[in-house]
Amino acid sequence: MALKAIGLNCSLKGSGKEPSSTDKMIALIASELAGRGIECTGTVRVADLNVKPGVTSDEGEGDDWPDLRRRILAHDILIFGTPVWLGQMSSLAKRVLERMDAFLSETDERGRMPSYSKVAVLAVVGNEDGAHGISAHVYQGLNDTGWTIPAGAVSYWVGEAMGKTDFQDLPQVPEKVSQAAAMAASNAAHLARLLKDEAYPGVSN
């Protein structure tokens, strides 16, 4: 069975607005995954949805999280993309992690969360410092909620502080960024295949 990946763009901009540098970084990783036999089904722009605040898997009428949760968990690899805002992940990225908190109480008979044996990598872009701090916080949030983080799991680009150039405006992707995307994709694909063949065993009660 072919493995599948989905991108999650936590930009503050909806898809009807100007293009997103976060989309470009997610697409870079997705392209590397596709070259390694992973089916990439597209990217969801969280700003297009009504993901309500909360820490359960369904916050009631009008909440788009239940369907997004289902779509995410139908894949083997998550490309979690966020811009840098005020040196931090976006508020939508934080909200997604908060909604995943429900996984902690949704374990199976062996204590495994719905995200167990699934792999997550990170895409970060911005015009200021923050990529390393964001990676640390997102890694911890994803790990707490059951995702597996491979080695070299982030591809990022940050331009000059308070600068005007966005990642999507660059004439070409810097070599180091391309290398980071290739490594993240290679490690994610390898790890996802291992976990698909032999999932985490969990523990017996």
From TrEMBL:
Q: Which InterPro entries match?
A: Flavoprotein-like_sf, FMN_Rdtase-like_dom
Q: Which domain of life is it from?
A: Bacteria
Q: Which Gene3D superfamilies match?
A: 3.40.50.360
Q: Where is the NADPH-dependent FMN reductase-like domain?
A: 12-153
The signal peptide stretch is none
Q: Name one GO molecular function term.
A: oxidoreductase activity
Q: Protein name, please?
A: NADPH-dependent FMN reductase-like domain-containing protein
Q: Which species is this record about? A: Sphingobium baderi LL03
